[in-house]
Design brief:
It is built from six helices and eight strands; from the N terminus they run ββαααβββαβαββα. It is an alpha+beta fold and 188 residues long. A hairpin with a 4-residue loop joins strand 4 (78-89) and strand 5 (94-101). Helix 1 packs across helix 3 (54-66).
């Protein structure tokens, strides 16, 4: 597996490192497995959570490798998940963001917030973006808190967009502008 063209830079924070995906990540992802709590945050029905196969992990890894703005999140040197910028529009200087911490032992400790902050510094700094948007299921309160800590504000709600475990759930749209992020973040 090889990434052609643009290679995402390595980005570092206090406890986290964002790096381009590499071949070993598929095996690590298989070993980590799938967890119903985490899959539910993506809108997967609890009965639909399946074990991760080597083939599935290889396809996931190839998709990340082919994605120009995707990083693996490492926390103190340990694989934790992925973060990426999607729908990058250079003319309008905007993108959407997605993040997934795949290790349940690492949830709720501020690592996701740190990974988002590191990515936002890059997006608003080196990439020169003006706006980052994100959508999140309304019941994913932990993620919403992390996004708010990073400066995202709720911009809207789409009602009953996801049917999960027998119930309809809303999507929350959130956004962050470069000037708002710059005024929030502590100076290095």
């Amino acid at each position: 597996m090889k990434r052609e063209g643009y290679l995402a830079p390595i980005l570092e924070g206090r406890n986290i490192r964002l790096r381009p995906p590499c071949a070993d990540d598929a095996d690590v992802r298989v070993a980590l497995g799938n967890h119903a709590e985490i899959a539910g945050m993506y809108g997967v029905n609890s009965g639909d959570v399946k074990p991760i196969t080597q083939e599935g992990a290889t396809a996931w890894l190839q998709w990340l490798i082919d994605h120009p703005h995707a990083w693996i999140i490492e926390i103190n040197g340990v694989f934790a998940g992925e973060i990426r910028l999607d729908n990058v529009n250079r003319q309008d200087r905007r993108a959407t963001m997605a993040i997934g911490i795949n290790n349940p032992a690492l949830l709720g400790k501020g690592f996701g917030t740190e990974a988002i902050t590191v990515l936002l510094r890059h997006a608003f700094g080196e990439m020169g973006l003006h706006r980052i948007g994100i959508r999140v299921l309304a019941y994913n309160k932990r993620a919403i808190r992390a996004y708010e800590k990073c400066g995202f504000i709720v911009e809207g709600r789409e009602r009953e967009t996801a049917y999960v475990n027998g119930s309809w759930h809303d999507d929350i749209m959130m956004g962050l502008l470069d000037r708002d992020f710059s005024s929030l973040r502590p100076r290095d």
